[in-house]
Records
---
Amino acid sequence: MPVLVFAESIDGKFKKSAFEAVSYANETAKILGTTTTAISVGNITGDDLKQLGEYGASKILSVTDSRLNNFVNQAYASVIAQAAKDEGAEVVVLSNTYTGKAVAPRLAVKLQASLATGVIQLPSKGDKFTVKKKSFSGKALSEVVCNTPVKILSVAPNSFTIIKSPATPSITAYNPAIPDTDFRSVSGEIVKSSGKVSVTEAEIVVSAGRGMKGPENWGMVEELAAELGAATACSKPVADIGWRPHHEHVGQTGKAISPNLYIAIGISGAIQHLAGVNSSKVIVAINKDPEAPFFKAADYGIAGDAFEVVPKLIEAVKAFKASHH
Amino acid sequence: MKILVCISNVPDTTARISFTPDGKAFNTSGVQFIINPYDEIALTRALELKESLGGSVTVINVGKPDTEANIRKALAIGADDAIRVNADPSDAYFVASQIAHVAKTGGYDIILTGKESIDYNGSQVPGMIAELLGIPSVSVATKLTIDGTTATLEREIDGGKEIVTTPLPFVASAQKGMAEPRIPNMRGIMSARTKPLAVTEPQGSPAFTVNEKYELPPAKAACKMIPADNPAALIDLLHNEAKII
Ligand SMILES: Cc1cc2nc3c(=O)[nH]c(=O)nc-3n(C[C@H](O)[C@H](O)[C@H](O)COP(=O)(O)OP(=O)(O)OC[C@H]3O[C@@H](n4cnc5c(N)ncnc54)[C@H](O)[C@@H]3O)c2cc1C
């Protein structure tokens, strides 16, 4: 009864979240005393497929049905459900990404399985199968007990450290039948947001708020982000008044993110904003008000005017990069 | 166009989250409950579609009688009628089963939910409803338009958005951007009192999971302040102390 893990790819390459998921699945398999089977959908080269072996997958099911080249949640759920049945998997692991969120609930119904989304720790298996996840928009953690024979766990991106555990995987072509009715919804065009790092997957996020005074001042925010290889984000009012696009809005009613480093510039630190970012590993707040609530949630703070601090910070990053090459 | 909007009752976004001393339950004392913000977005888009295409908007909630204040609020915002399935919303599968059961005989063209509830953040109910009904679903949608019997949606994906078309009926979960929530006006509040709110008893479907224990995230250590005239010191700390750059 191996652990089955869906390894997500984009444009023929696995995402970082896929390696996290495989790694999570493999550590779970160790707890359960079993092996890890990964399933991949799309045209991925043998060498790329083998990468999953580095994180512990001993068997790889490669689905190449061209109807799945565009994402369709119903069809993906059918394929993964069939694989879970064929493999006899009792635990199925996915990433809690947009794709995972669209597929996992359908999978849970198909397999009549417990579903825990956004898990942040390995399951514990005493007399109950329990996993930990974030809840109340990051303001709390909860322990979810899964009471069915099959369990589906979707792993919160950036919360589980990748563990290498090299295996030599077997690769099997796997193309189960998919009902035509699974293809009623059709994915068309994909519009990339300015080709930069996506805020949900980024390791570093530079975010700014109303303290920037106006959209014309975002040049320094973008420059700092570019120097750090970071994604840009913003507070809600900034997106609401149209200074920045909606997809940058983070917080309780925007995106919830957990990068390694979150730099907040001119953001007060309202509870709804913090809810979406407080699970970042390290938080830096830059605010001209030394009493700003953000300093209570930050690891490092600079009490100063962003218009003076940020340009200096950009210079410091440039100097740092120059001295570490 | 018959539209069903699923609403859940969640703690206000400013609520201080705490738990009973044994950590087994959410401490509701002094907490105000609101309509889940994403569900309000879904509701508003449903009302806009009804206004342009005709039809009706029904809201459904799985909850105990104490959720009726928020159901009435949804009616005040503009929904035509409401259904409350009289049960504790114990887990996503249970809730989705109840809603799917109602929807099976309701003949809805569109079922809308929020992208997640801000309490359990599961993002599970919409996809489960769709699977239970055997219809398409689109998650985390920022745009929804209807042309005849086809819907066109934009959904968020990593690093961008994707355009999806789907025939009716379907389920979609709303993300910010789909509509701007409306505030109920006096007339809405008055008329909400007399709009139909049907209460039905739950069907015997199981809950698969139990939230057994809660805790607050570990407290942060005090913030280290760095002089404003020396941001280079920050880079040094991020490199040598936090070891993240
Ligand atoms: C239901 C609900 C949901 C919400 N969801 C979200 C959410 O998801 N995300 C979110 O962000 N907010 C959310 N909010 C809004 C939230 O309550 C705050 O209003 C918002 O986060 C404030 O944004 P801000 O910090 O950019 O602006 P402000 O509160 O105006 O703060 C600006 C900050 O910039 C500082 N500043 C000003 N000038 C400078 C300068 N020159 N240099 C440095 N600092 C400067 C000020 O000291 C201040 O701290 C929500 C609110 C509600 C009611």
---
Amino acid sequence: MSAATLQESLTTDRLAVRSWRPPIILGVLALFAIVVFGILGPGGNATFRLSQDGDAWQVPNLVVPAQGFGWFAALICAALAVQAYLQTKNVGRPAKWVTMTFTVVFVIGLLVWIIGGTKTQNITVVGLFTGAMLITTPLVFGSLSGVLCERSGVVNIAIEGQLLAGAFTAALVSSMTGNAFAGLFAAALAGVLVSFLLAVFSIKYVVNQIIVGVVLNVLVSGLTGFLFEKIMKTKVNGATIFNQPAHLPDLPIPLLSEIPVLGPTFFRQSILGYLMIVLVIAIWFGLFRTRWGLRVRAVGEHPKAADTVGINVNRTRFLNVLAGGAVAGIGGAYFTLVAVSSFSKDMTGGLGFIALAALIFGRWNPIGAALAALLFGVAGNLQSILSLAGTPIDGQFLAMLPYALTILAVSGFVGKSRAPAADGEPYVKG
Amino acid sequence: MKRVDLVKLELKGITKSFGALVANDHIDLVVESGEIHSLLGENGAGKSTLMNVLYGLYQPTAGEILIDDKPVKFSGPSDAMAAGIGMVHQHFMLVPVFTVAENVALGGESTTFGGVLDLEATRKKIRDISARYGFAVDPDALVEDLPVGVQQRVEIIKALVRNARILILDEPTAVLTPQETDELMDIMGQLKASGTSIVFISHKLREVKAVSDRITVIRRGKVVGTADPGASTTELAAMMVGRSVSLTLNKADAQPGEETFKVTNLIVSNDAGQRLVNDVTFSVAQGEILAVAGVQGNGQTELTEAVLGLHKHVQGSITLDGKQLLGLGVRQVLRAGVGFVPEDRQVDGLVESFSIAENLILDLYDKKEFSRGGTLNRAAIAKNAEAKVAEFDVRTQSAQDHVGTLSGGNQQKVVLARELARPLKLFIASQPTRGVDVGSIEFLHKRIVAERDVGTPVIIVSTELDEVLELADRIAVLYAGKLMGIVPGKSSRELLGLMMAGLTADDAAAQLAAAGAPVVRDPSTEEGEPA
Ligand SMILES: Nc1ncnc2c1ncn2[C@@H]1O[C@H](COP(=O)(O)OP(=O)(O)OP(=O)(O)O)[C@@H](O)[C@H]1O
Ligand SMILES: [Mg+2]
């Protein structure tokens, strides 16, 4: 009996497994849109500024009447909700395009409503994105570290510690040598060192990986804090010479950097910004197109199967964890060699944990994780811009949204997000 | 494809100990080139251990391996593979989220420059081998979507791609349907014809007799002798177990009482709305065994899941003693007096990292005798474990060992021992003797009949026709989720075969009558065969 013929002989009755949840959720959201975007919508225009003053190409501002657009978006949402209801009633579930279009229209409506509600009623889109990169860049490095570790089956909670160790070491070495690249190199080493501890304890001594990770974070925070007080705050001739790192210069790419919005966001960065893009692509390619990646993924999914075809499971994991440490260490260097002028205590501020969220939201895929990091970066920056501009909704609430999304993603609501099957499980040979 | 060189394999004095336990004790074994050599032995006799030593997964405590009379040393599976040894493990070693091609490539990848995978080369090899042996395997299918029979072919392809000249098959037929088993036997014949030697492990004596050139019997880690494939199943069984085994169960006729378990118009659907169980109605009386037969994947699993409260989309009614079970959680169903042996013991039945003693009280831990005020009574638990281990003949050093270190068949015994321990109002077992040796099957079957005889309604779900015929008082056949009918336990194999292929009981009987074939089994012509 082949599976195909059996499949065909089964009776199908979609209506028996119909779920009313999607149309109800869409209905409630549409109602919200009608009331908030439409009826209570702000008067005047919402202006999106697409160019900065110094740009070679000046793109005209995008101006939308806030309330009018609000009504427009709300009605489309309502129509889609009705469509979802009808589809659920007749064929058991709404079509994918319906929920996708709904999401996009709703988000745009929300954005227009928020901006229309601010005092100035305008927002610089370029500023939104370039500011976002300050958060996104370390997030991407952090989540790539997570990808490397977790794809091989080691949970890396120590990303935060690796970032912080990188930030500190980069600042110190760059200050002492006056060479930013020396700082960058030292930061990678510092990340590797943290990873080495993680690898030794979780792989060799089979200590619970989460616990090792948490302990490492506390250790790095304490150690950098201590050294910060003892070394960096020491003044020599009235200056804190150990906390004045040389910075990595911006390297704008000719022509590309002049593209509106995209140019300033992606092509006017320091070497780290370009390295980030290269790493995302390289790690993606490596994982899914090379022998190395196939083995790494096998080790993370089914270590015993990998073992039976002669792959050294624990060595693969060890090397991947070390590589992850180097990547996160470099990400940490971004804080002190690019983003701000000097090191301060616990300056990573939990971004390492948000990198973990980006990793999960991006489904353990380098490109997905990078996009998630971009989303988190934009949301985080939007929140700070808006709280300056005075919004109708609380900035803290907006700041929470990406993480609410992550929880939904993890709980399987926004599509399935599945960790590598052997993630977090030590491999002990039988 | 290049010609496979003939090769002779010899194991000399192989000893493997796990702590104080000697799993293999000076085992000598010679596999001549191009022969099918079967290993027979009870659960825990040390067959899998020996094969893991041969495949380089375990290092022998003593002894040596010779290939073509030259001693070799395997520090890992890659050495064994390089020497031409391939193994299909008892529990498959495939990455579920990889495609067939990725699984086959893993560890021996073809690459272009810079380590970039060349899966096209692997696909081509898969297609070549598939064409040669008549496998229908799609290189781009995800392994998790494939039926077990096809997954096993992927394992065989993995070995063949590496030019295996000696192929180890560890209980390959335990998870196969009868048709798939026949196909595997054909494949083994072809492999042998092309010069590959095969080491074959199975508890099904009929299969062993059918394919083997030679049989070696192992008992408690030692070789107890070799047997000729012409030997009778009774002789083989006696040699394995060390006593005479009765291969047919002489059970008294059922004394059915009140029908206390009723399933009415049961529909179980998957997320896509396909009806995996479609409008099934039946009932089971106290003191009778109803066997649910059918080719794997025709709704048996979903039927038992629905009773247990493990399935999401269920309509209809399931009552036990007049009490509705539908809508209850698993725990409440178990509390209502249902004993359950799941199809896959490793996933649902056991906690591998718990001891045998703890596994034996998994669903009884809050009973008075085992715990008081939230603390477990260690002594009582240990005593219970000793008794069960002895009764069910679980081969282990100590009841405090982790269940994960038990051999496959012994794990199965632990599940049955636990589920049969408490007073039951209904007993459901899926594949109750999967991977269990003939001696233990005899015992477990008797134990299940004893459960019937104290008046418990019993449902046995099995894809083994032998087992169904052995145990059943009545037989229900499922096909594509529908009930083809319920027939008496004495029905003929032909009748059941037709029903399993999708004919209703009446149609099947009519067809047999027209052909002059029997509808009822004639016990005098039946050869005693173990399930
Ligand atoms: N990793 C291990 N650690 C400790 N004991 C083990 C381990 N693996 C196997 N054993 C023990 O070695 C003995 C032989 O086990 P093995 O799996 O080889 O049996 P088997 O002949 O394959 O049985 P079955 O037919 O049930 O599969 C058993 O007593 C088992 O409990
Ligand atoms: Mg075994």
